[in-house]
Write a structure and sequence with these properties.
heterodimer; A: alpha/beta; Nucleotidyltransferase, domain 5; five-stranded mixed β-sheet; B: Nucleotidyltransferase, domain 5; six-stranded mixed β-sheet; 7 strands; elongated
């Protein structure tokens, strides 16, 4: 009997999958994405200067706001150290349809210039231009 | 005879699977939430914005970095300011806009000078990229 019986339940050969290469690849991917990914939320402030303003800043059509090298904002003999405070005061100084021209003096950094442009735009002043006077090189 | 070595037949559960799951989830999180960009120079301090105004950033076709000393970089390589006009001219022909990531301590004259060159070359839109101010 034993010699003629057919064993229907054959043992399947067990295939063992090695997870080590998978872990290696996944770790390499993780390290790659950790190194190259950036999560900084960038915002855009439009700042294209107007060529024509260079000569027309004394015109009544524009109120000139000057940024000095210590980061203070000067307009019509008044000074402010905060961009938000300056923008509120400048809005009160503006007459109807008057634009604002932001002029950076020699030695001024870009941070206060962007701050005042942004603060003026936030205050609802649409016509804000950066004066390119002295910036051409 | 007593066998000196006994076979261990006890099944040890595979503890690497939860680890792989977590690592795969981290990879997915970085792939979805992160943006792959050219690295900024060391000690670069971006210009900060106080309010939430300004549109959210898009991938700009022409992206410049201006360092603290006023050097202009494209893809981490320094570019001469005199070469910018030609580059801006080509970009304006393709109706690209300009995006500048300036160090907050960069001279305003240098940044405005680059913006002026872009305007001269016919670029219609130029933006300075900012991040939210530290609270």
């Amino acid at each position: 009997m034993h010699g003629t019986a057919i064993n229907l339940h054959r043992r399947r050969s067990r295939v063992v999958l090695s997870l080590t290469p998978l872990i290696d690849v996944v770790f390499i991917l993780l390290v790659f994405f950790m190194l190259v990914s950036q999560f900084t939320q960038w915002r855009e402030i439009e700042m294209l200067p107007k060529a024509a303003l260079g000569e027309q800043t004394t015109d009544d059509a524009y109120l000139v706001v000057t940024v000095d090298k210590s980061g203070r904002f000067i307009a019509q003999d008044q000074q402010w150290s905060s961009a938000v405070g300056a923008s509120a005061a400048i809005k009160a100084l503006l007459s109807q349809d008057q634009a604002v021209s932001v002029r950076a003096l020699e030695g001024a950094k870009i941070q206060p210039v962007v701050s005042i442009v942004e603060a003026l735009q936030s205050a609802g002043i649409q016509n804000v231009h950066v004066d390119r006077h002295g910036a051409d090189r | 005879m007593i066998p000196l070595r006994q076979k261990h037949t006890r099944h040890v559960p595979d503890t690497t699977l939860p680890l792989i799951n977590i690592v795969l989830l981290l990879v997915l999180a970085f792939m979805i939430a992160g943006v792959i960009e050219t690295p900024l120079p060391a000690e670069f301090e971006p210009v900060q914005a106080n309010s939430e105004t300004g549109s959210s950033s898009e991938t700009a076709p022409l992206s410049l970095v201006i360092t603290q000393t006023g050097e202009v970089l494209i893809d981490s390589e320094q570019v001469k300011v005199s070469d910018l006009h030609e580059l801006f001219k080509m970009s304006s022909e393709q109706e690209m806009h300009l995006s500048i990531k300036a160090d907050s301590r960069a001279p305003a004259a240098d940044v405005i000078g680059v913006l002026a060159k872009a305007e001269d070359a016919g670029i219609k839109k130029a933006v300075v990229m900012t991040i939210g101010a530290d609270k």
